[in-house]
């Protein structure tokens, strides 16, 4: 469920700015027990999985593994309980001993010790294990590789199971019932293609026999042991076979040439001989085959187009935790709150999908000048939508959708060259420079400003000095007022000028013809996304950086006879000539 990687998760998340809000702490006594090798006796979960929630706590995605489980002891058919205890742990629920330790079965343990001793002399002698259900749970949950590798490991399992049994006090009756439920819900029963690892009787009945868990339990509960129907007997036999196969699950369940049917039949006879089941149930069950079902069909997936936000959140979780496998992520005991608004996501996705209808596209205004033409098919139009909401000092994603029913996500997987986005970055840089100039010169008097030496080509610094010199009131000299004034600076939209860039002399055009015939403010140029306004703004930004960098370039560019001019040119030529 991911707990083994919890230290790694905490380390990775800590490096990305996350902090733990709550954390369980070990008591000194618990630490002492763990130092002695005891497994920590906390109440463990039988079921977990990934839960993704939206910004309002509504479920975006929900996974649970194992998927089919008994809620409590009362939900388990009594005939299954009796059969399990006879096979694995006789006397576990004996009410005569309310304080019995469920981790110890002295009769079975002593038999196992004797068999082990005989095996040293006779290697062909069978030596069944002496594990109780409680120690088996400790083994497959906590022992390395889920196995008992040594005698000390067996005693560690027994000690841990004993501590866990007495967590609620000396009366262990409820703890023993809980052991039965935990075992049935979590016992490992191999793995199957198309599903993955199988844990618990519920999932195993569905995966290996194609049985509906609820139906099987109902059949066993309603069964008349003296006159069982063929279907009821079949349900019981299949459940019993899984109880038996847990000792060699991969051998018995993944292969068809085993003796599982015969072995189950022998246990049916033993159960009847010991009065656990009736002869009628034995005979009816013996007649039923144990043919396995075909691998379960994969559940029908929702369309990709409806899962774009969920997949993006999952990808973010994988990046943060380092869990790359979808299979592993689904089985983490993890609940994640995202910023996505589920209802808004649904509405936007539905709107984008309806665009493929020509009548709807017309109603949305997608046909017209510089838009779709009448002969165009709107179903071929790829559209995406991302919505941010300002919350405090952050912008959070509320909607991330597109209309492509494929795994590809335009919003997060595409690399787009967006001219308008470049204009926004240019405008932000421009205003940052104005703020920097304000911080540098706003505290100077008119006389001090007049003595400031500026490069002739540094248009932004010249404008700042001129604005501050003419400011009449302290409010006019404030940063906000100066930024507003900077938005009213004017640039020409004319495309008739060439511009030197890293690629040589370049010319640019505007989208609309009228834009090239006007001189307009920065504000208007941004509103209409006028190319030449921002080309000229970028030129001013470049010149500002030239004359206000770490090296004063004013003499080099202003004075053609400057001795540093040739040094700079040679250094530039060397750098360009050595670049590959």
Key structural traits:
about 575 residues; mainly alpha; two-stranded antiparallel sheet; 11 strands
Describe this structure in words.
It is a single chain. This protein is mainly α. Helix 19 packs across helix 23. It is built from 27 helices and eleven strands. Among the domains are: 337-413, no CATH class; 419-549, no CATH class. The strands form five sheets. Strands 2-1-5 form a three-stranded mixed β-sheet, with helices on one face. The protein has helices at 6-15, 28-35, 78-88, 106-121, 133-142, 151-165, 173-186, 201-209, 213-222, 230-245, 249-254, 260-273, 279-286, 308-321, 326-330, 342-354, 358-363, 410-413, 419-441, 446-450, 459-470, 474-477, 479-487, 522-527, 531-547, 554-558, 563-578, and strands at 50-53, 59-62, 188-192, 196-199, 334-337, 384-391, 394-402, 490-492, 499-501, 504-506, 519-521.
Number of helices: 27
Biggest sheet record? 3 strands, mixed
Outline:
elongated
Q: How large a portion of the residues is in β-strands, by DSSP E?
A: 5-15%
Structural class: mainly alpha
Separation, N- and C-terminal Cα atoms: 51 Å
Strand order of the largest sheet: 2-1-5
- β-strand number: 11
What are the low-pLDDT stretches, counting only 5+ consecutive residues below 50?
A: none
pLDDT average, as an integer?
Answer: 89
Output the radius of gyration: 38 Å
Residues in helix, %: 40-55%
